[in-house]
Design brief:
6-stranded mixed beta sheet, 12 strands, 6-stranded antiparallel beta sheet, 2 helices
Length: 247
């Protein structure tokens, strides 16, 4: 399997809704050492244009790039996708908020078939978390808490991602997942690897992707930065995920 998108080139093609990026084939060791990533250019996500506003979040709660910003990179090898996140976060979470996404966390959104549309079949109009339980889901909302050890959440059709009900076993067994976190001088980094269950990627296909980082300074989530800058319900609708060509 060869997955490519244009990370370094970052040139938008005319007539396309999204940028294309290039993901290199690299053999990455998930160990918290970033030496494997030196030849891959990072994507910067910083500034007000990436803030998501809603659910009590406002621009005023974000105090600049040192408060929350991040770089990320991606690679692939064999059947796995690999991610490196380097996060600036001036105050790390206690990881005691009720839901995973209210703590410091990294979010990865995957649309394996790049089909867009709603992730959830038959969800209620008010889009409550409980509405998702037992519903047919398309694509994935994955959350990774930089706690020690890291906590992983990969299937929101089975619950609402309670912080004390991590899905690390499913991530390891069903996704062949790996994750490490490491505190840094200005925040933390995370290395993540997984194979998408049931996805048999072929040359010429695309997948959709978006990533985000949430910030909790100890009193609940105060800001969220999203790569695409989508201002809608990005965790429900996959239409604004970035496109990644499989070549």
């Amino acid at each position: 399997m060869v997955i490519s998108t244009f990370f370094a080139a970052c040139s938008q093609k005319k007539g396309q809704q999204h940028d294309d990026y290039e993901i290199a084939d690299r053999k990455i060791v998930v160990d918290g050492n970033i030496k494997d990533w030196q030849s891959i250019s990072p994507i910067k996500v910083e500034g007000r244009g990436h803030l998501w506003i809603g659910q009590g979040l406002t621009e005023a709660q974000w105090e600049g790039n040192d408060d929350l910003s991040f770089n990320w990179r991606a690679a692939h090898h064999d059947e796995k996708l690999f991610f490196l996140f380097e996060v600036k976060d001036d105050t790390l979470s206690n990881f005691d908020q009720q839901y995973a996404w209210l703590n410091d966390c990294i979010e990865i959104y995957v649309d394996p078939e790049s089909s867009g549309g709603s992730r959830i079949t038959g969800i209620g109009a008010d889009n409550t978390f409980e509405d998702r339980i037992g519903k047919q889901m398309r694509g994935y909302e994955m959350q990774f808490l930089p706690s020690r050890p890291p906590k992983v959440f990969v299937d929101d059709s089975k619950g609402v991602y309670y912080t004390n009900a991590e899905q690390n076993s499913a991530f390891k067994e069903q996704w062949h997942g790996e994750v490490v976190t490491k505190k840094t001088e200005k925040g933390y980094l995370m290395e993540i690897a997984f194979a998408v269950p049931g996805s048999d990627f072929q040359s010429g296909q695309e997948l959709g992707l978006d990533v985000a980082v949430c910030d909790d300074d100890g009193k609940g989530r105060k800001s969220l930065l999203l790569w695409s800058g989508d201002k809608g319900e990005f965790w429900v609708t996959m239409d604004n995920f970035k496109k990644m060509a499989l070549k």
